[in-house]
Write a structure and sequence with these properties.
The complex is a heterodimer. Chain A is mainly α. Chain A is built from 14 helices and 2 strands. Chain A has a two-stranded antiparallel sheet with strand order 1-2. In chain A, helix 2 crosses helix 14. Chain A is globular. The termini of chain A are far apart. Chain B is mostly helical. Chain B folds into 2 domains: 2-67, no CATH class; 74-284, MetI-like fold (Orthogonal Bundle), CATH 1.10.3720. Chain B contains 13 helices and no strands. The two termini of chain B are 18 Å apart. Classes of the chains: A mainly alpha, B mainly alpha. At the A-B interface, helix 1, helix 5, helix 6, helix 7 and helix 9 of A face helix 1, helix 3, helix 4, helix 5 and helix 6 of B.
């Protein structure tokens, strides 16, 4: 009798639990179905695609090539013969990697230094701080196409920027985006201009978290303003700087919009980036396998930085 | 967060050096503000000039005569109204679906027990780290086979189910005490009732953040619409502007006029809600 009751109870409990689970699943389902179909599935599919040769169209034309696409994009045979220099001067992937890396290495520190300087300035008692903050942040929400085309015009041969250079005694009478040396700098300039306000906001929030008694203690110890900056502010901002840089490195590796609108990867291959390369192979040349293999290179790079961020997050959380 | 930068000075007597430093500070701030704003000013100025005046030397910031007709001319040259309608439709639909389904899913992840919860959540977190550009091609192949190519629905489903939304809302819901849900359960509220009448009203700040960032992100998105939308009746403002630039590449004044129009809606949203933008970034510290 007792046992029977327990069994009934148990059965009821599982039914109750099952109902609870079903309710939980009903909460997840609307988002998860969309997510699974349009994100999860394509992610897995892209790994598979990087091992086949396929020009699109019928699935039966797909041909398994193993690591063939990777050998193709890295031009392994030629590189083995002519050395690593060949990869970065002649091979599309090497050039795209080199350009993307150069762009990242210059843009990230430049943006973060500007962002930190602006945040420090606004954190002082400044009149109109809210107004300044609004102005600095505004480019971040402005649409890329409009601002990029505007910058491209301003950097034209007779545009205001070359006029300014002339007024300052220099001379440059070419369109920036049409000069293979300057093109990448025009992209860097627009990126810094657009992003510094965003990271400034992050730094401003971080500065709010620096305890004021640290400065008081430093003043008591006779530290001047500069020493306070290097010994209190900078170390206190280190976690923020670390996260801002990894976040920004990742977004720099994904650069596309600015390049597509300002230079279209040119002149020549001087501003070809990883994503413009993926885009060209996928949507202009229809080399689906090659495009997916390049995409995997991008994925690996981004994952490395993400993992670094995760591991450091644990470290900062423990401290 | 409005108090972010208005910490008051202690009001100690000023030395000459500190006055100089203060002046320097303002000079740097004003110079940077000018640097930030000049492209917009130039854009506006060029949009009111004649074609040949745009690159005049020396530069004239205020046009000799204001050619307002540029702004009426563009409406006949480019179906701007269609672009605006498409973009608004996409942005509103995406924002609605994204906010609703993410907060729905996030409630289950944060407050309900079920089998596979951690596995599913790891799926979400893992794909946040995967750049969209790495799977845009398979996604394109999938959507084309579903007959979504060159339809607005392609962009809607592409943007609506981001893992980021779920992640953001779950973080927020975890901060809400579970006791609240339990008390409501005892009072006889169903799980759906708890979500609608307790969680949603309590998460206004997170919802506001998600709404504005999704809206602005979708409005400004360029690469997605460029891949999917080819017919003119389907184009968004960004892709339409791009087409206009390519087809009228030397009509600088008209391109600038269309650009100004494309910036207006987001600028208004930003100026009206800028407090929430700043708060959103400061609290999530994540991508927008």
């Amino acid at each position: 009798m007792d046992q029977e009751r327990r069994i009934i109870y148990k059965r009821n409990k599982t039914r109750y639990e099952r109902k609870k689970e079903l309710i939980a699943y009903s909460f997840i389902a609307p988002n998860f179905i969309g997510f699974a179909v349009f994100t999860l599935l394509p992610v897995l599919f892209s790994i598979f695609l990087s091992f086949v040769k396929w020009k699109g169209g019928d699935f039966s034309t797909m041909e398994w090539v193993g690591l063939g696409n990777y050998a193709e994009i890295f031009k392994t045979a030629k590189v083995a013969e002519k050395g690593l220099g060949y990869l970065f001067t002649k091979v599309d992937l090497g050039i795209a990697l080199k350009n993307t890396l150069f762009y990242t290495v210059i843009t990230v520190p430049l943006t973060l230094i500007c962002a930190m300087a602006l945040a420090l300035a606004l954190n002082k008692a400044v009149k109109g701080a809210v107004g300044f903050r609004t102005v600095f942040f505004f480019p971040y929400v402005a649409s890329m196409v409009a601002i990029c085309v505007c910058w491209r015009f301003m950097m034209m041969k007779d545009g205001p920027i070359n006029q300014l250079i002339m007024a300052l005694g220099g001379s440059f009478n070419k369109s920036w985006t049409a000069d293979s040396g300057m093109a990448i700098w025009s992209i860097i300039l627009v990126s810094v201009w657009r992003n510094m306000g965003y990271y400034m906001v992050i730094y401003l929030a971080a500065l709010q978290g620096v305890p004021t008694d640290l400065y008081e203690a430093a003043t008591m110890d006779g530290a001047n303003k500069w020493q306070q900056f290097t010994h209190v502010t900078l170390p206190q901002l280190r976690p923020t700087t670390f996260f801002a840089s990894t976040m920004m490195i990742i977004s720099c590796f994904k650069i596309y919009d600015v390049v597509a609108i300002m230079t279209e990867g040119g002149p020549g291959r001087s501003t070809k980036m990883l994503v413009t390369y993926i885009y060209d192979e996928a949507f202009s040349n229809f080399n689906y396998g090659i495009a997916s293999a390049i995409a995997m290179v991008l994925l690996v790079i981004v994952l490395v930085f993400t993992l670094a961020q995760f591991s450091m997050e644990g470290k900062y959380a423990n401290n | 967060m409005t108090q972010l930068a208005v910490k008051k000075d202690a009001g100690i007597a000023r030395s000459p050096l500190s006055v100089v430093l203060k002046a320097l500070l303002y000079i740097v701030l004003i110079a940077t503000a000018l640097f930030t704003l000049i492209p917009f000013v130039w854009m506006l100025s060029a949009s009111l000039k004649l074609d040949r005046e745009v690159f005049s030397y020396p530069i004239r910031w205020i046009p000799e005569t204001f050619h307002w007709e540029n702004y009426s001319l563009i409406w006949s040259k480019v179906p701007l109204l269609t672009y605006f309608k498409n973009t608004a439709l996409i942005a509103i639909l995406v924002t609605f679906i994204q906010t609703l389904t993410s907060s729905f899913a996030a409630y289950a992840f944060a407050k309900l027990q079920f089998r596979g919860r951690n596995t599913l959540f790891i799926c979400y977190v893992a794909t946040i780290a995967v750049p969209w550009q790495t799977y845009m091609l398979p996604q394109f192949i999938l959507m084309r086979s579903m007959g979504l190519y060159d339809t607005l629905w392609a962009i809607v489903v592409l943007q609506s189910f981001s893992a980021f939304g779920v992640f953001l809302m779950r973080q927020f819901y975890q901060g809400i005490p579970t006791e609240l849900c339990e008390a409501a359960r005892i009072d006889g509220l169903s799980e759906y009732g708890i979500w609608a009448r307790i969680m949603l009203p309590l998460s206004k700040a997170a919802v506001a953040t998600l709404v504005i960032f999704t809206f602005v992100g979708t409005w400004n998105d360029y690469m997605g619409p460029m891949i999917y939308l080819t017919r003119d009746i389907n184009k968004t403002v960004q892709v339409g502007l791009r087409r206009f630039i390519q087809e009228n590449s030397s009509d600088y004044h008209l391109i600038m006029a269309v650009s100004v129009c494309s910036l207006l809606p987001v600028s208004v949203v930003f100026l009206a809600l800028q407090k929430y933008f700043i708060q959103g970034i400061a609290t999530t510290g994540l991508k927008g």
